[in-house]
Write a structure and sequence with these properties.
two-stranded antiparallel ribbon, seven-stranded mixed sheet, 7 helices, Rossmann fold, alpha/beta, 252 residues
């Protein structure tokens, strides 16, 4: 899909890994990635498996595919950069937490409207019923943005099996949040029609490291491309710079 391409930039010893959301692409991360690259960071914003092409490509995939791809990218990036901050939006935030739970050397994670606990039983039960009726893709609502002029590459439907797999991943992540000891920046939209802000509440209350919360008053779920995108880019840039300039700052 035009605009969904991965982003990569070679820089210095400080690295940044930027992870997009479910059914999305690196498009929403591109401005932040460009800003970090201009600051001299080595940056990777990968296109996760099944994304950025056609929705049918996402149908057979799940959490194991995305987490494995993220682990591989982080490992390659860390081989070049001793300090790698991780940034994620929505499912990308889930994956950022997953990495931080497994890699105590992550100096900090910045997450925007992250999913860190499964959707409620009613939603998942409805998804399973559709899957049992041989419905593979759930036709969804328009992208959740307050700015009606915003367009970006995304799928117009939700692969049901992949959605259920994402929830299994979120459940795994929720159980391990206490293992996150690095600095955590949580950026939350006051009004989010996809991932309830209570996910951010859970993250802030559960991690073991120091946290910072930034609230957005004008944007919905897709805040990386919505009215507040410049504020989001700015606070993430400042956070990534601060956690990578001194390795000691990232640990408690």
């Amino acid at each position: 899909m035009p605009g969904a391409e991965p982003f990569s930039a070679d820089g210095g010893d400080e690295g940044a890994l930027l992870l997009h959301g479910f059914c999305g692409s690196p498009f929403g991360m591109r401005r932040t990635a460009t800003r970090l690259a201009a600051r001299g960071f080595t940056v990777e914003a990968p296109l996760l498996p099944g994304h950025g092409t056609a929705v049918e490509d996402l149908v057979p995939l799940g959490w194991a595919d995305w987490s494995s791809a993220v682990e591989d990218t982080y490992t390659r990036l860390q081989a070049q950069c001793p300090r790698v901050a991780v940034v994620g939006h929505s499912m990308g935030g889930t994956l950022a937490c997953w990495l931080a739970e497994r890699h105590p050397d992550v100096p900090g994670i910045a997450v925007v409207n992250p999913l860190v606990e499964p959707f409620d039983d009613e939603i998942r039960s409805a998804a399973r019923s559709l899957l049992e009726s041989r419905t593979k893709v759930w036709k969804g609502e328009p992208p959740d943005t307050a700015d009606p002029t915003v367009t970006f590459p995304t799928y117009d439907g939700t692969p049901i099996a992949a959605f259920l797999s994402l929830n299994e991943g979120a459940e795994e992540v929720a159980l391990g949040l206490g293992r996150i000891k690095c600095r955590v920046l949580v950026v939350s939209s006051r009004e989010d029609h996809v991932v309830p802000p209570v996910n951010g509440d859970l993250l802030v209350s559960s991690v073991s490291g120091p946290t910072e919360r930034v609230w957005l008053e004008r944007s919905y779920h897709n805040a990386m491309v919505d009215y507040d995108h410049e504020e989001v880019e700015s606070v993430i840039e400042a956070f990534v710079v601060s956690v990578t300039e001194d390795p000691g700052k990232g640990q408690t």
